[in-house]
Amino acid sequence: MFGGLAVPANSPHLRKSDDFEGENGADESLLNSVEVNDMRGGNTPMNAAAMMPSPILLWRFKVLLFLIWGCICCKVGWDSVMRMSADKRDLFLYEAFLYFNPLLLAALMVWLWGINLWVFAQGGANYAKIFDLDQNHLTHREIWKCAMWMTIIVPTSMTAYIYLYSHGEVAYAASQPVLLYAAIVMVLIFPFDIFYFSSRYFFLRTLWRIVFPLQAISFADFFLADILTSMVKVFSDLERSVCRMVHRQVATIAWLEADSVCGSHSVAIPLVLVLPYLFRLNQCLRQYKDTGEKTSLLNALKYSTAVPVIFLSALKYHVFPERWTNFYRPLWLLSSVVNSSYSFYWDLTRDWDLSGFTRIFKFSKPNLFSYMLHGRRWVYIWVIGSNLVLRCTWTYKLSAHLRHNYLTVFTIAALEIFRRFQWIFFRVENEWNKMNNKSHMQMSEMSNEEEKLLHSMNYNV
């Protein structure tokens, strides 16, 4: 049936048949059977590979599904909100954002962290060595996979919460944030070797070392603690959300009174806001105890300047308006300027080591992205200018009168996460250069010692 089909001389089947004839003396029946199987669509590896869709096609299909899912969530959420009365709508959206915006901000941080790891891997910066990670550490692809699931699950739960509440199913709506938070906690503390067990253990262990700095501070310890200072809004909303869950106030919008246990007047809010700064301050004191470097004390002083900003802002809910305007507000503005200026100075001269403005993204194997950024004047202007503006904006977010402007606060918190994402590049780059310089110095010292030893041996001879 296929006898009239000609086979090209450079066919891989012909080369395979000739090899067999030369070695084992096989006849041409093997060639004919392979040809017939190939023409009939036999299950050969070549055909199986040809039937598999390309990675680009799969990626486009996933993006299409993601966009369709996003449109459905937006449509269902918008229609559900429009069912509510105008006087109830704003209060309900404020409560919905309270439960879900911390997780959305956390998902944003995970997405950006994946970009950080991708640039480090492309640029030749051994971030696994910098953070002292094991061989099973997550790559940027796995980080993005986690971020993708967070981005899907959290808005889906939020859409279900809005839909159920607008349709009168208050009890089912109240269960949505509770189930979501419980699921996240269970995934983090799951004791079995699934869901990236080693990475989860490393993360929880690092959090433990941050809260209780009873040992020498590693780079991963204070690096994660610095990131936590940019996510104080996340912890503040988490505290209020968990408080409402414990007191069974979920899906009840009449909760903004001054005497509410979980309201904006709660003293727990400034306490939660200040905790990440206190953790970082304790780390600096621990470093000074271990190393005796006075730079650690200056760094501790930087984090201590955030304490007056937070507590003076919280006094707005506990003093008379005239007292706040005439006395406490000027003090708050002064403390804000001191904190922002000190932090900005420390970023440039210490964390980034840009006092001389000599390097940005100077990796050992620069990729196209780092090559485009290295040595460009606009990069220096953008990095320095945006860091200064976002530092001041983040301090302004701690103002008490912004607590109920949830969209403004969410935007400012997202911008602070972006500033931290930008900060990570230069902080890790600076640490990587320090490690390389240290290793070069050690190698030069070893070579000098070897030369001295050889010189003494030759002299003795």
Describe what this molecule looks like in 3D.
With 461 residues, this protein is mainly alpha-helical. The chain has a domain at 321-348 and 360-418. Helix content is 75%, strand content 0%. It has helices at residues 12-24, 29-39, 45-51, 55-82, 86-123, 127-130, 140-166, 170-189, 197-211, 219-229, 232-246, 268-291, 294-304, 306-314, 321-351, 368-373, 377-397, 406-460. The model is unreliable at 1-31 and 33-41 (pLDDT under 50).
Could you give a quick summary of the protein structure above?
This protein is an all-alpha fold.
Ranges where pLDDT stays below 50 over 5 or more residues in a row are: 1-31, 33-41
| Overall mean confidence score, pLDDT | 81
**What series of H and E elements makes up the topology?**
HHHHHHHHHHHHHHHHHH
Structural class of the helix and strand makeup?
mainly alpha
How big a fraction of the residues is strand? under 5%
- What coarse outline follows from CA principal-axis ratios? globular
Specify the biggest β-sheet.
Answer: none
| Extended strand count | 0
Q: Assign a percent range to the helix content.
A: over 70%
Q: Give the CA-CA distance, first to last residue.
A: 88 Å
Number of helical elements: 18
Radius of gyration: 30 Å
